[in-house]
Amino acid sequence: MAGENNISATLYVANAVPATNDAAGFEALTWTKVDVLIEEPQFGSSGEGIDTPNLSTGYTAAVKGARSGMSSPIIVRYDANATQTGYDLLKTIAKSSAGLCSVKIGYGTGTVDPLTGPALTSGDEVIYAHGVALDYQRNKGTTTSYKGYQVTFRQNAPEVEDTEPAA
Fold first, then answer.
1. H/E/C letters for each residue in 83-110?
2. Does residue 114 contact residue 8 with C-beta atoms inside 8 Å?
3. Does residue 19 contact residue 36 with C-beta atoms inside 8 Å?
């Protein structure tokens, strides 16, 4: 069986969180594409283990405690030939006092733009999450770096996997 890569991933951002943590809630938001994605966020959560000692058996067992969402970078590159609306919106959200937002990662199969990749079409795989955009960091300028920035995204609820709805 052949493996798959993440080439064709596109990032969309919304300056809001959904009313419900499901596909319908996310699709009710207004999405803006962030062109020239370098690294998408990693979705998931980690759980706390709670030790439950038992003097009668002499054994300490574990139960599953609270979960917290992953913190991971979103890295984007500036390109004067790309639309900067999403690039600027993500930066504005990360620099705001609340930083609340939603993100959508799509794996398009539609018409390919040479700069921003394939467009999303009905039935394409999408993953939604909402949380907080933290830690805006502009890329350091060197002779081998590109202009752009990194934002840390911290997930506040389980991600939702679905498909792109019909237009």
1. CCHHHHHHHHHHHCCCCEEEEEEEECCC
2. no
3. no
Query: Using alpha carbons only, what angle is made at residue 44 by residues 136 and 140, rounded to the nearest 5 degrees?
Result: 25
Strands (E), the chain: 9-14, 32-34, 37-39, 45-54, 59-69, 71-77, 100-107, 112-113, 117-118, 125-138, 148-155, 160-163
When pLDDT is cut at 50, 70 and 90, the band that residue 8 belongs to is: confident
The pLDDT of 138-152, averaged and rounded, is: 93
pLDDT above 90 coverage of the chain, percent: 76
Interatomic CA distance for residues 126 and 107, integer angstroms: 6
User: For position 81, what pLDDT does the model report?
Assistant: 85
**Cα–Cα distances in Å, from 54 out to 26, 51, 59?**
44, 10, 6
Read off the pTM.
0.88
Hey, what are 51's tokens? 């030790």
